[in-house]
Write a structure and sequence with these properties.
single chain, twelve-stranded antiparallel sheet, eight-stranded antiparallel barrel, 21 strands, 0% helix, globular
């Protein structure tokens, strides 16, 4: 028997079922928040924190990851809880997300006594949010990906702690991502999540490809820090390589199955906007938070410069199960989309 929750009293339903039930029952259906927090003045070797909160209807659980690089050390922590009648409160023992003002102010907290990264920060929006269109990918009859996302740039103030290291932060910058739907990470050949922070706004893109490089999905925007309406991305091209310890291009897997030989990422990408503008970005950075051994690739902290001379920072997420350029040596689990 399905049990109503407090949120079922609200006018928020989209399908004729109670809220804990989703339109497509799937082991990989989830809704999640993702925040990146980094110092825009510290360069590609600086501290960076990634904070997540997610819930999984099929498993009836909620969890939070606190991970990143603090003082040169990679760290990762995990908290979770069962629904226990509450699938909506974004809190688990040791971590929580509080929406103080929707799309304006969000508070993130994780307990430094139980978390690899203690977080007590406030995210304040510096751009309007942008809703990506729904994207779907299949492998035969199996749904591998079917999601929507919201992107938004903001600044952070507060405190970050890890071990004996405490950082008082003010004016750190980063992206937030709110996504929901089916995401079977292990079977997506490639996805790129490039989020570029410039003084006057952000460039963001979400891009998927098949293993042979054929394009599946691209969406993103330019959003100005002046509060103007985001401008959609209608074209995206990239020429980006993994870098080895010597700063030369390398192949993921040559130095070890789990990317042990990868030190960073570098290259260029071009965003074509709906209003006719074209912006090319040169970037280089470090492999800040690998996803290995759970999945290939991970998150890279980058410094960037545009073709019109603007400079800034970025997070480049490059991950997937097999791809002719980024993961040519990977052995994917199961049948991949093609």
């Amino acid at each position: 028997m399905a049990r109503p929750t407090a949120a079922d009293e609200l006018f928020v339903h989209q399908i004729p079922q109670l809220l804990p039930q989703v339109a497509t029952h799937h082991d990989h259906w989830r809704e999640s928040y993702f925040f990146d927090i980094h110092d825009p003045t510290a360069g590609p070797d600086g501290d960076v924190v990634f904070f997540t909160m997610a819930h999984y209807p099929a498993r009836e659980r909620m969890d939070s990851l606190q991970m990143g690089r603090i003082g040169g050390n990679q760290v990762i922590g995990y908290h979770d809880r069962p629904y226990d009648g509450d699938p909506h409160t974004t809190a688990v023992p040791g971590a929580r997300v509080e929406i103080a003002k929707p799309f304006e102010e969000i508070r993130l907290w994780s307990d430094p006594s139980t978390s690899a990264v203690g977080v007590d920060v406030v995210f304040r929006a510096r751009t309007q949010p942008y809703g990506l269109r729904r994207g779907t990918m299949r492998a035969g009859d199996d749904v591998v990906w079917d999601q929507c996302h919201i992107l938004q740039s903001g600044t952070y103030t507060g405190t970050i702690m890890s071990g004996e290291t405490t950082r008082e932060i003010d004016g750190w910058i980063g992206q937030r991502d709110h996504s929901w739907g089916i995401r079977d990470h292990g079977r997506c050949p490639l996805w790129l999540w490039f989020q570029i922070q410039l003084d006057d706004g952000f460039l963001g893109v979400w891009h998927w490809e098949y293993a042979n490089g054929a394009r599946v999905y691209t969406d993103g925007c330019w959003a100005g820090s002046d509060g103007s309406d985001p401008v959609p991305v209608v074209r995206f091209d990239y020429d980006v390589d993994w870098l080895g310890a010597g700063g030369k291009p390398t192949t993921f897997g040559e130095g070890g199955e789990h990317g042990e030989g990868v030190a960073g990422l570098a290259g260029s990408c071009t965003f074509g906007l709906e209003d006719g503008r074209s912006i090319t970005v040169e970037a280089s950075g470090t492999f800040a938070r690998p996803y290995e051994p759970f999945q290939r690739g991970g998150l890279n902290l980058m410094t960037v410069e545009t073709d019109d001379g603007r400079t800034g920072t970025a997070i480049y997420e490059v991950t997937g199960s097999r791809h002719h350029h980024f993961f040519p040596l990977a052995t994917p689990p199961g049948v991949l989309p093609s």
